[in-house]
Fold this protein.
Amino acid sequence: MTVLRTPRWAWVLTGSGHFFVESFELIRELDHCDIFVSKAADEVLRMYRLKLEFPETMRVLRDKTASAVPVGGLYHGDYHTVVVAPATSNTVAKCVWGISDTLATNVFAQAGKCRVPSIVFACDTAPELETMAPEGMVKVYPRPIDLENTARLKTFDYTTVVESLAELKAAIALRREAIAEDD
């Protein structure tokens, strides 16, 4: 893997369609961002007929290795921030319970071990939600365990959990300010 001189954003896409398209728009607003695409996110891309078209300053890293080789950059200071958006209830549960068996959960786990701040846009945050499916808007009813896991994730060090697109935008703006202050 190439040695990077400018620390970057690491944006992790999981298998949720919840604000998936809007996440793409936010990614495009960032400078120096790598997009980590889980196997489930690849499936969502096909379902929504989306293509990963980003500026040349961005790299797309796919889930192709058993040990999630691309996460090694977290150990070398390649990333200043990890964004997991959107995050499925499966990803949130695995993060909460320390399971790192996918690219998405591995990036989150290694970020925590390296004290790299993470922003997680959890999908299942209320007893009743409307979300976009490939065929249009649908109602979903997250299970109590999904809501409990989201609440648990909020207690993690170096982790900001957001519950809406507006909160995601605000968290990214705050992180940008913190990064600018560090420069």
